[in-house]
Amino acid sequence: MVEVTVARLGLDSSTQSYVVILQEKGGTRLLPIWIGQPEAESIVMQMKNVRRERPLTHDLCKHLILGMGGSLRRVQITKVQKNTYYAELHIQQRGSGDVVSIDARPSDSIAIALRLSAPIYAQESLLTTVEEEEEEEEQRPEQESPPSFGAPPKPPAASTPQPPQPSSEEASSEALKEYLERLRPEDFGKFSL
């Protein structure tokens, strides 16, 4: 596992889905994860210290963990299967010191980790390097569109070429890595409230 931090949030222009970009702590490797709008808003609200009068779901999770005497030791993003990312919350119980691993979506896990100042880790095989991405960009034809991973496909406009979809039900890690290597900074818009 490699520790990562939230580098930025963006909008994938090919799918109109939000993307949280995790970056290796002290490194250049990246892990983009496609997430829903409510989770993206919750993450950015915490990053910008925006407070609501009433607690949001991730605030409630924070209060439940603390109120029951637990502490979030870490979040682990463990794998991707069938275009779905998996994560775990590792919560230490007060008294016994036992650590309970709870299955969770990465987007929720990140939002909760930010609220509890807990470290986030990702499986090393999920990270891609920026250098590889830049080399691929130089070799790639300009008209090539990235495939859509992690979000439902958006019907293309008549003049817009449709991004290719993964050929099998379960996208291989090689296909995902190839897609991630093709991403360019301009493929993501800026996220704002």
How does this model look, in words?
- The structure is a single chain.
- The chain is of the alpha+beta class and 193 residues long.
- It is 27% helix and 31% strand.
- It contains five helices and eight strands.
- Strands 1, 2, 3, 4, 5, 6, 7 and 8 form an eight-stranded mixed β-sheet that branches.
- Strand 1 (2-12) and strand 2 (17-24) form a beta hairpin.
- Helix 1 runs parallel beside helix 3 and helix 2 (57-67) crosses helix 3 (106-116).
- The longest helix has 11 residues, at 37-47.
- The chain starts with a strand and ends with a strand.
Sequence stretches where pLDDT stays below 50 over 5 or more residues: 139-173
Taken from the alpha-carbon principal axes, the silhouette is globular
Q: What is the helix/strand order?
A: EEEHHEEEHEHHE
Describe the biggest sheet?
Answer: 8 strands, mixed
Helix content: 25-40%
Number of H- or I-type helical stretches: 5
Mean pLDDT over the residues: 76
Number of strands: 8
Distance between the first and last residues' Cα: 32 Å
Describe this protein with a few key phrases.
193 residues, alpha+beta, eight-stranded mixed β-sheet, 5 helices, globular
Which SSEs are present, and which pair or pack?
Layout: E1 2-12, E2 17-24, E3 30-35, H1 37-47, H2 57-67, E4 70-81, E5 84-93, E6 99-104, H3 106-116, E7 120-122, H4 130-139, H5 173-182, E8 188-190
Parallel strand pairs: 4-7
Antiparallel strand pairs: 1-2, 1-7, 1-8, 2-3, 4-5, 5-6
Helix pairs in contact: 1-3, 2-3
